[in-house]
Amino acid sequence: xxxxxxxxxxxxxxxxxxxxxxxxxxxxxxxxxxxxxxxxxxxxxxxxxxxxxxxxxxxxxxxxxxxxxxxxxxxxxxxxxxxxxxxxxxxxxxxxxxxxxxxxxxxxxxxxxxxxxxxxxxxxxxxxxxxxxxxxxxxxxxxxxxxxxxxxxxxxxxxxxxxxxxxxxxxxxxxxxxxxxxxxxxxxxxxxxxxxxxxxxxxxxxxxxxxxxxxxxxxxxxxxxxxxxxxxxxxxxxxxxxxxxxxxxxxxxxxxxxxxxxxxxxxxxxxxxxxxxxxxxxxxxxxxxxxxxxxxxxxxxxxxxxxxxxxxxxxxxxxxxxxxxxxxxxxxxxxxxxxxxxxxxxxxxxxxxxxxxxxxxxxxxxxxxxxxxxxxxxxxxxxxxxxxxxxxx
Length: 393
Fold this sequence. Notes:
The chain is an alpha+beta fold. The chain contains 13 helices and 13 strands.
């Protein structure tokens, strides 16, 4: 305890110099915490984006080389998934996206995405009905001219008016609004809510084609993803004529997992870069401790002359270095918390707090840095000969 008290007294006596010495540690610890927290926020932001789109999806894309000799397997594929994979999937839908101009009265929307799908489209793409009804199987069978609006499209075309039962125009084609989806992406222009869903069986009326080549399967749990992909791949190999068509089957979770791996690597890199600042701070501590040893040479000589062993001298200077770096670590942690919160609100509009274990590791690492770089000055101080030390004025 005496060593700790002496360390604080020494730091307090040279306040300005001590603050400047701690600056490297403060910057290093705060940089580690802020950079790692910002990357975690980036990862959380992207993960939330993919989760809004819907996870556990298998995307199928068919490519036909010779359409004159091609048999449309759309219904067969949907029947296979609904019958043979019903225990591990929650739905399958054709999936085609285009753009167009939506009009209601004098109000226009030219940014909305137009989705062609079936009665399971919303479940496969993580949309929840807010009012009215969703697309029905009867709409597919009868090729009903109906649509379900995203919340932004409903707002941009109708304002506060109830759109259910009203008719909008899609590139001159009339569609009756039967439902509105709940907002899930801020209900802004070009967001996920800037969309409408219409029956895929209207593709001939609107697109001039009967052939669908893209499908989305919603899998009930991530543990079933590999099994569903394998079984669908085998079915496609057996069903498609390899001379006229080919296919791709993609795991919809791959993009999210790739982002997680990328941000994990980025955290390590940025943490390492910020850790260099800690090492620079440690060098600063070593330099100041060498100066301190020079300033207190006579004091060291007196202690050794009255019988103080080398380990007492070493401990005294190591404790002072540890206290100096520890104080820097505490100030750096406080600055890191403040920087993480400010950065999180500014960049992602979310509250970001440094991970507890990262805070603990950074603090103890700062102390280790102080002790490590303070070791040489401490050993040098303990090696002074009393006679030589007492001669110093």
